[in-house]
Amino acid sequence: MRxxxxxxxxxxxxxxxxxxxxxxxxxxxxxxxxxLWKPIHLDRMNKGQINSWTVMExxxxxxxxxxxxxxxxxxxxxxYTNTDYGELMTKAWGKDKIESNSTKTYNARDMVGNELWxxxxxxxx
Length: 125
Fold this sequence. Notes:
The protein is of the alpha+beta class.
């Protein structure tokens, strides 16, 4: 007699929100991401809303309308649709800095695209 069992849990999927960014001339968009947005995403990570947040610059690339990416990873696509950024910005920046920091963000870069990807196969250590 052969014993079998059904898998009781679905495999964990990783979702990637990839935002394509174009720095504006004379601006240090990476510094702005580090100072303004990293604390917000660190808070999200500490709350278990996301697994990671990364800023990436290309080393070898062809011509693209962007010069860097931000990538967030999570286990559910709902993470990206159910985030209250107003609450997060108020906590990280204070209510009196939301407008000025939003202006700093707008002045430093444009978001030229945003995509949601899911991993379907892979190996990792």
